[in-house]
Design brief:
single chain; alpha/beta; Rossmann fold; 2 domains; 3-stranded parallel sheet; 38% helix
Length: 178
């Protein structure tokens, strides 16, 4: 929705739904200043009892040919900055999503592999959940980044190192066929 008038004093006059108890920030190709204003108003009105939830912190989404677009993390950061508080992230690398799946299904971490193309979300979540991790080099991560983390003395950087890597997920087809 558009802002309800030409001036900031008008923008805070739009009605708020009294039932809203949380602001969820996810991928939104129509994210706008008006939505940011409404999110802030709900969070200020509800105070700490109004949850601020983000789906993920991906800063870029890779496209073919090396191009990228801003990811959901950019939108989450905008709302966090306006609200002056941090969102609870339900997606990777937080283990919340894994714990939800594991509570519904018989998941054995020793027999589970996390496959992904990002160190800071996919691989970190896999390592946080004590899963075997496999990095595909078809996303935003390069092998040089992996080596840099591997050679570091920093535990936080070491937690970004995958157990295995492949150039492409298609490389697994040969292994799976054996």
């Amino acid at each position: 929705a558009a802002l309800p008038g030409p001036a900031p004093a008008d923008w805070v006059q739009a009605p708020l739904d009294p039932a809203v108890r949380a602001v969820l920030v996810g991928f939104d190709e129509h994210f706008s200043y008006a939505k940011l204003c409404q999110a802030l108003r709900y969070l200020v009105r509800g105070g700490p009892d109004c949850l601020l939830v983000g789906t993920n912190r991906d800063h870029r989404l890779p496209l073919e040919g090396g191009a990228a677009i801003p990811g959901t993390g950019c939108l989450v950061k905008a709302v966090e900055t306006a609200a002056q508080r941090e969102a609870f992230i339900v997606g990777k690398p937080n283990r919340f999503m894994f714990d939800c799946v594991a509570s519904e299904f018989d998941v054995d971490p020793k027999r589970t592999i996390m496959v992904g193309d990002r160190l800071d979300t996919d691989i970190l979540m896999g390592n946080n959940c004590h899963l075997t991790t496999l990095l595909t080099l078809t996303g935003v991560t390069t092998l040089d980044e992996v080596r840099g983390h591997m050679d570091s003395d920093c535990p936080a950087r070491n937690s970004l190192v995958p157990d295995y890597y492949v150039d492409s997920i298609a490389d697994l087809l040969q292994v799976l066929g054996e």
